[in-house]
Design a protein that fits this description.
Helix content: over 70%
Strand content: under 5%
Order of helices and strands: HHHEEHHHHHHHH
Structural class: mainly alpha
Number of strands: 2
Number of helices: 11
Shape: globular
Low-confidence stretches: none
Radius of gyration: 18 Å
Mean pLDDT: 82
Distance between the termini: 37 Å
Largest sheet: 2 strands, antiparallel
């Protein structure tokens, strides 16, 4: 927590470098052993030049969301990192009433759909989509179940496409099975099967 507070205080004292410091904060937050509730409370209350930290963070995400096509073409790592970052914020941040930020739900679904449709990076994009659905799928579906239905239909179509790689199909099959399991952890043997299969395909 001391490291997180150090970064936040740096933002307060040097507002010209807020964007970079926001990214550093979230990277540190992901590695923090503190509870998500505590991190959410910090983000809700902290101010930088009279503006809530949470608002600064949402504005930064909005900027990257509007230029995501450009990012996908020019900087794939930044594009994938942005989507991961967006999902992490959704998973951590809560309103004053303790509710997830629904304003992030549609952008996340849009990004996940675009990952599935990516023709350039394919397996990396599907891996990113798979990982984010495993971590935020339940919460996303609780907010907008009809969009999850559409997303999983697209995942099934992609999985059944003969031109897709074995790795892509394995990643998508695991997500579909996890959804069928109501986003609860799969049985140990099933998880081991997917781990072995994916390790073999990425070796």
């Amino acid at each position: 927590m001391d490291k997180l507070m150090e970064i936040l205080n740096s933002m307060r004292n040097n507002s010209s470098e807020v964007d970079g410091q926001l990214t550093t904060f979230m990277e540190e937050a992901q590695n923090s052993t503190n509870s998500e509730e505590m991190l959410s409370q910090i983000m809700a209350l902290f101010m930088v030049e009279g503006t809530k930290f949470r608002s600064l963070l949402l504005n930064m995400l909005q900027k990257d969301f509007t230029r995501r096509d450009e990012l996908q073409q020019s900087d794939v790592e930044h594009w994938l990192g942005f989507i991961t970052f967006l999902c992490e914020v959704f998973g951590i941040m809560r309103s004053s009433a303790g509710e997830p930020f629904r304003v992030l739900v549609c952008p996340i679904y849009t990004c996940l759909r675009e990952l599935l449709e990516s023709a350039e990076v394919k397996e990396d994009a599907v891996l990113c989509c798979s990982m984010e659905l495993q971590s935020t799928g339940r919460l996303l579906e609780e907010q907008l179940p009809e969009m999850m239905t559409e997303l999983l239909a697209a995942a099934r179509d992609k999985m059944l496409c003969p031109s897709e790689s074995q790795l892509t199909r394995s990643l998508l099959m695991e997500v579909i099975e996890l959804h069928a399991h109501q986003w609860s952890p799969l049985e140990a043997l099933t998880t081991q099967y997917y781990n072995r299969t994916i390790q073999k395909l990425t070796a």
